[in-house]
Amino acid sequence: MAALGVFDTANLNSGQKLAMKYFAVALPLFGAQILFGLLAGLQYLIPDFLFQVLDFSVNRTVHLNAMIVWMLYGFIGGVYWMLEDEAQHPVVGLWLGNLIFWILTIAVTIVVLVYLLIQIGPAEMSTIWFIMEGREYIEAPRWADIGIVVSVLVFFFNVAATFSKGRYTGIGGVLVLDLLALFGIYLAGMFYTPNISVDQFWWWWVIHLWVEATWEVLVGCIMAYMLIQTLGVRRKIVETWLYIEVALMFGSGILGLGHHYFWIGTPQYWLTIGGFFSALEPIPLVAMVVHAVFDSGVHKLRNSNHPALAWTIGQAAGNFFGAGVWGFMHTLPQINLYTHGTQWTASHGHLAFFGAYSTAVIAFFYLAAQKSRGNVWMSGNIVGGWKWKWSMAFLWIGMIGMTMALLIAGYEQSQIERAVGGSTWMAYFEAQSHPWFMQAMTWRQISGYIFGLGYILLVWDLLTIGKRETRSVSELHAEQPQPA
Ligand code: HEM
Ligand code: HEM
Ligand SMILES: [Fe+2]
Question: Hey, which of 341, 417, 451, 478 has its CA 20 to 30 A from 64?
C-alpha cells in the first residue's frame, strides 16, 4: 500500500486498474459532450455560426454519441470496479478485458473522426456501413456496431465468469441478467429497413428499453454497491430494495415503451398501453429516493466518502425529477399530442440523462479517486473540499438552468405552434422565432457555460483531491463501528 495522498494504481485490485482506464476515457468524453453541446446551442442563437464548417447536425450527433459512450464507459468502469469485491475472485479473462478496452477506444476515435471529416454526402448502403446509420444516439456505422457487440460479449463473459468462479451475490445475479438484456436489445437497432415506421419501432427498443429499463437496473446495481461502500449499509437491506425496484422497473418500463408509439404509425392500442404503463414508471424511482434517503438517515450521514455520497443522493433525486417528474409531465397521449418533439422533450432528456446517469458515474469517479490515493480520508473537512462542493453546485445550477429554459421554450412551442397554430409549417416557424423562445435559448446557453465551469472544477478536483491529505479512511472506521 502506497503512502496516503499519492496516486498509485498499486492500491487497486486488477479489476479496478482496468476500471481506471475506462474512467480515464469517460471523463474527457464528458468534456467533449459539453463542448459540442455548447457549439450546437450557440447555433440556435447565431444560425450562421460554423455553417458548412461544423454543421448543427454534426455537433448534435457528436454531443449525443459522446454522451452515450462516456456513460457506457462509466458503467463498464463501475462494474469492473466492484467486480472482484463482489465476486471475491480475480477478474476472469483480464487480458481480454484490456485488449477490448483498446479496440473499443480506437473504434470510438475513428467513428468520431469520420463524423467530423465527412459531414455531408449521399445516403447509400455503404454510408450505413462506413459513415453513419443516422439513428439518433446510436449513429455509429455498421462496422463499429459489430465491433461493439463483440466487445460487449467479451465484457459480459468476463463479468459472468468472474461471478461464477467466485460467488454470486444478489447484486451480481441481477447485474448479469441485466447485462444480457442490455446488450441483446442493442441488436434491435442494427437492421436497416426502408420503412421509417418499422425502423423507428425497433430503434425505440434500444433507446427506451435502455434508459428506462436496463440502464436503470444497471445503475441500481452499481449504486447498491456504492451505498454499501460509502455508508456501510447492510447487504440484505440493499439487495431487498434492489429486487423490489427491478420488479417495479421492468413491470412498468417494458410496456411503457408504448409512449413512443403514439404518432409513428403503430396501431392505436398503443395510446392506451403506452399511456397507462409509462404513467407507472415514476413509482420505482420514488422507491429509489426513499431507499437512499432512508439509508443515509439510519447511518446519520456518517460515511467514508462525502463527494461520492452527495452524488449518490443527487442521483436518486435527479433520477426522480428528470425521469419521473419530467417524464410523467408529457407521457399521457392527451398531453404528448401538444408537447411531442418540442423543447419540452429536450428539457426532460437533459435532466433525465444527467440526473440518472452522469451523477452515478461521477460518484464512481470519487470512489476511484479515494482508493487510488491510498484510501485517504474523504469525509468531513476534506483538504481543498471547496472544489467538489462548488463543482457540484455549478453542475447542478447549470443543469437546472438549462432544464428550466428548455421547459419555457417547450411551453411556448406547445401553445403557439400546436394549440394556437394547429401544427402547421408556418406555426412551427412562428414559434421558433418568438421572443420567448429566443430568450429561453439565450438562458440555456448561459446555463450551459455555468455547467461547463462546473465540469472544469470537477476535473481539477478529481486530479487533486486527497493529494495533501494525511488522514486515512480507517480513522473513520475506528471511530464508528460498522452497524450490525
Ligand atoms: C433515466 C431515464 C430516462 C431518460 C434518460 C430519458 C430520456 C429521454 C430522451 C433523451 C427523450 C427524447 C428522445 C428523442 O430523441 O426523441 C425522451 C423522450 C420521452 N420520455 Fe424519457 N427518459 C427517461 C425516463 C422517462 C420516464 C420515466 C418517462 C415517463 C414517465 C419518460 C417519458 C418520455 C416521453 C413521453 C418521451 C417522448 C417525448 C416526445 O414525445 O417527444 N421518460 N426521454
Ligand atoms: C453544457 C451544456 C449543454 C448544452 C449547451 C447542450 C445543448 C444541446 C443542444 C443544442 C441539443 C440539440 C437540441 C435539438 O436538437 O434541438 C442538445 C441535445 C441533447 N442533449 Fe445537450 N447540451 C448540454 C449538456 C448536456 C448534458 C450534460 C446532457 C446529459 C447528460 C445532455 C443531453 C442531451 C440530450 C439527451 C439531447 C437530446 C434531446 C432530445 O432529442 O430531445 N446535454 N443539447
Ligand atoms: Fe421512453
Answer: 417
